[in-house]
Amino acid sequence: MNEQIGIETVSDQLLDQIEGLYSKGTSDVKLKHNDAVKLETFLRNPDFALRKSEAKNMEEVFSFLERPLLEKKYAKRSYFGQIRKDFLANRTAWIYPKVLLLLSDYRFGSFRAGLSLLYLDKPLRVGEEDEVELFLLLSTEEKMAHVPLLFELDFLLENEFLAELRKGYSMFDAFLMKNLTVKENSKKR
């Protein structure tokens, strides 16, 4: 039986971790607004926002996704090793149809919040029935700077981002189009 969880469960788990940090009476654990990690940073950089025609298997997907995070020192190999173990144990986060989020606890070797994305023109079959078009690999960190990225991802994915990728747009262009559409719709109200 696959143990699949959605964005709500991941968000609840992260909120529990945040509450745990603050309930210990530590006043030094604060995330300044200017320290927040922005989704746009990763979508703008083609090293982090990848598009491939296809991937042969999950090992190739992991290789594509972890490379920029390793090179830029977001996390150690041990972090990605734990994500592989979690994946093999069917502990995955399907946050939207055809979208798979891969992450683990920062204590396995993640130093700072980061994200690499991989869009496949030809979805990869994962498991018996599920296909994935968009893979997201999130590096986490102790002060929960990665949590805003989850909320930005949720907003992005609910606003036709995948549809724009299917039309052939780059991730950053699809992001810009989504933002333009949201602004136009808010002006009409």
Give an overview of the whole structure.
The protein is 44% helix and 21% strand. The longest helix has 18 residues, at 171-188. The chain is globular and about 40 Å long. Helix 1 packs antiparallel against helix 5. The chain has helices spanning 7-23, 39-44, 58-71, 77-88, 147-157, 161-166, 171-188, and strands at residues 3-5, 49-52, 91-96, 99-102, 114-126, 130-139. A six-stranded mixed sheet has the order 1-3-4-6-5-2, sandwiched between helices. Mean pLDDT is 81; it is low at 22-34. The chain is built from seven helices and six strands. The protein is an alpha/beta fold.
Largest sheet: 6 strands, mixed
Class from secondary-structure proportions: alpha/beta
Sum up the overall morphology in one term.
Answer: globular
Helix amount, in percent? 40-55%
